[in-house]
Amino acid sequence: xxxxxxxxxxxxGRPIAVLNQSTANHxxxxxxxxxxxxxxxxxxxxIVDVSKDLIGNDEVxxxxxxxxxxxxxxxxxxxVSLAQKPQSTFFIKKKMDGESxxxxxxxxxxxxxxxxxxxxxxxxxxxxxxxKNKMNNAETEALISSMVSVGxxxxxxxxxxxxxxxxxIAANRTTPIVVSICAAAGLVMxxxxxxxxTSAAGTADVLESICKVEFNSEELKTIxxxxxxxxxxxxxxGLSPADDKLIQTERVLALDPEAQLIxxxxxxxxxxxxxxxxxxxxxGSSAKVSKKNSxxxxxxxxxxxxxxxxxxxxxxxxxxxPIGNGIGPLLEIRDVIKVLKQxxxxxxxxxxxxxxxxxxxxxLCGKTKKGKGEHLAMEILKSGKANHKFHEIMExxxxxxxxxxxxxxKLGRSKKNILADRNMKIREINNKKLNAIASxxxxxxxxxxxxxxxxxxxxxxxxxxxxVTLYSDSKTRLENALELFEKLEPIN
Amino acid sequence: xxxxxxxxxxxxGRPIAVLNQSTANHxxxxxxxxxxxxxxxxxxxxIVDVSKDLIGNDEVxxxxxxxxxxxxxxxxxxxVSLAQKPQSTFFIKKKMDGESxxxxxxxxxxxxxxxxxxxxxxxxxxxxxxxKNKMNNAETEALISSMVSVGxxxxxxxxxxxxxxxxxIAANRTTPIVVSICAAAGLVMxxxxxxxxTSAAGTADVLESICKVEFNSEELKTIxxxxxxxxxxxxxxGLSPADDKLIQTERVLALDPEAQLIxxxxxxxxxxxxxxxxxxxxxGSSAKVSKKNSxxxxxxxxxxxxxxxxxxxxxxxxxxxPIGNGIGPLLEIRDVIKVLKQxxxxxxxxxxxxxxxxxxxxxLCGKTKKGKGEHLAMEILKSGKANHKFHEIMExxxxxxxxxxxxxxKLGRSKKNILADRNMKIREINNKKLNAIASxxxxxxxxxxxxxxxxxxxxxxxxxxxxVTLYSDSKTRLENALELFEKLEPIN
Lengths: 492, 492
Description:
- Two copies of one chain form a homodimer.
- Chain A starts with a strand and ends with a helix.
- Chain A has helices at 21-27, 64-70, 88-96, 103-114, 120-133, 137-149, 175-184, 203-207, 217-227, 241-253, 258-272, 291-307, 329-340, 348-364, 373-382, 385-396, 404-410, 431-441, 475-488, and strands at 2-7, 10-11, 16-20, 34-39, 42-51, 59-62, 77-82, 161-165, 189-193, 229-233, 276-283, 311-318, 326-327, 414-419, 424-425, 450-453, 460-461, 466-472.
- Chain A folds into four domains: 2-82, Barwin-like endoglucanases (Beta Barrel), CATH 2.40.40; 88-133, Transferase, Pyrimidine Nucleoside Phosphorylase, Chain C (Transferase, Pyrimidine Nucleoside Phosphorylase, Chain A, domain 3); 161-237 and 272-404, Nucleoside phosphorylase/phosphoribosyltransferase catalytic domain (Pyrimidine Nucleoside Phosphorylase, Chain A, domain 2, 3-Layer(aba) Sandwich), CATH 3.40.1030.10; 412-488, Pyrimidine nucleoside phosphorylase-like, C-terminal domain (Aldehyde Oxidoreductase, domain 3, Alpha-Beta Complex), CATH 3.90.1170.
- Chain A has 492 residues and is an alpha/beta fold.
- Chain A is globular and about 75 Å long.
- The interface between A and B is large, with 51 and 52 residues.
- Strand 2 (10-11) of chain A pairs antiparallel with strand 5 of chain B.
């Protein structure tokens, strides 16, 4: 039936349409079910709410998502009809019951995710089904190609390189260092990054503390053309829109099923036009990947990378403890800036890892011979060229690299030192626990919140020495983080 | 912070609060996250949406759920603060990862479900975790007692009996027959029923086609006091509010994990004050329960029933095909009325099963000796006493038992006969497929939609004979149902 549009001035996070009760009865739709709205050739599926008396019989109130998608104005007429439960929900059930999905079944799920045809609960069931039942190779390949097919594709001239570190390690903010070194060496590196999924902050969250990270693909191209690189959030680029939604759902429980992890990484690398891709797989007892599984994951990345024409290399790195000292956006960017500026008190472990990864990329794409990559990377870093390139990229992203003191002023208004209660040698620094504590403190949303670590594995600490400082913008959150710290004992 | 209430005139299905962007930033909350709203001693957790310009800096717009829960009016002040991610989400993750949950962990999940502290996705993850990883006995017992503890408890004088048939069998509408027979015999039977979960219609959906089924617990007591029985929807009674929400989430994918099934049934029987409970477990190749699992399920029901002081009996019944001819609310109630009126063309299988179940209840509660139950049940049915009691209950529920002709006028406006395309002997009538087809036709929402079966297993059918008639209020739905019928071939 034809209904007149009333505009709801809010984003609901997904399309929401409100009908009055009698219209809903007429269309035969209930709260939480789906309707189709269409105008000319455009149509969108929306979840229905029912109003008691705000909406007239001949009206439908729609959220901003629908307004943008259908390009409608107040009082425009739209055609509204009952949307069927999408067929993809049956495939989700099938996967939940342990059966394998066919290529077109996976494609139907991915397409419905992008078309907003699935509810929050249905998405969660899909994530849970893949988490519990895993995907075989044919399914994973179909997932990658479906994800690519529903997204945009970019392409760049030159030696286009990329890197991805599997998340879950606290801190470990190597990306700005590696990108700056590689771009300074003349490689093209259109790096897109996620926000936090299972760790306390993603690269996009961290960079957002000093520059803009939300750009569209045209803007991305301009930045890369200008500087040879970029470091932007992948969430609104539309490179892998299905993955962007799946990640939102995964984040709810910090789930990250392997097939989706692989598809998430590779679909974005393929979409952005990368030819040489380095994957850093940190493994360890509190990392996302165990030592045992790391070799298997490496094989899978290499297998699927090849299937999609990528030159891919995986490195297994030590993920037994955080890399760097800061956990949380501003604390991490401070570490990064110190390394790029080669300051005396920079975190040496972060510098080492940045050089290692950049060196690997140089060798992978033929920039240097085998065994010579790290040397070039170190040279570029020590010479200040990488730091200069970093400033250039940050400026292109409407930001500015702050002084260390400026950062320190912006750290959480509330803070708390935690001291060693006895003499000890540090034998465990648990990534998962630290990530959980930093999240409770407000990371990544409070940019100044998080944890500063004073020690690494093997360090000897005396009673009364500082172990960590907790930062938060909110006293309540600081107390909660402190309580969780004492409960979890992340450092032993 | 203190914010002024603006009233959103719609039910969102769960509490929704809309903040403007700057207030959201101040509280440090994002779309889809949670806030606490409180006024005096009352508080409620709500999901946040963010408005572009509808809401002022000092305002919060709230859905009807919040208005009802906090009892607030336009321009009242409420205290708004960030709600933490509930601890129960960590327990859900734990269960997802295959670990067992402790009693207090399960209780924390159930409490948060009832308090609306969990999102749709989190609820789906809980259902998926239990579906995939199952629950051990200690967990199931904790689930039952948690569900009971968050709900209301009723109690009645007299011999309070109850029955439950495991769903999934198409048609199988024995409840109105059994309740009418038992109440006519002087037993007290406060029967509460669900709406459809995995089948095309639940008893509440079916009865709703001729009477009211939504009552509160005070009204329920009045009906039972007056007639000795009731047949009402359990969804708004508050007997097991956690279960009511879980069922909504399960329905999305037609999941029904065993532990939740047991807890769902028993928590409601305990809450309503039943002392003698008969559980009908239909098994078969297209039933929810296989022959293999039925004995195990029987044992579990008996085990947990005893733990909670119920006198419980389980009967394993033939679920190889639908019981009765109609599938869909009005089609099923027509079968029921024919049996109660003892009409010539009543479905004999439905009559037989009703008598059997009522007889079992008579023996279980000591109304008759062993072996004499069915005889009494048959006597009451044949004498017209059951039919008289049914009229009495329907009147107490603001309804009226219609004539068969009146029902026939209300059946789906569109219908389609499906004929046998060859001579055959019927060897399969698939419950799951028929339920799916009836759902597509509009059941249980379109009361007149569904499937009428002309045959049962073993019948010989000639080419051109009617196999079934499909009914729907919508031509599109009828076509979709027809297409699905041809694809699934539910009758062979």
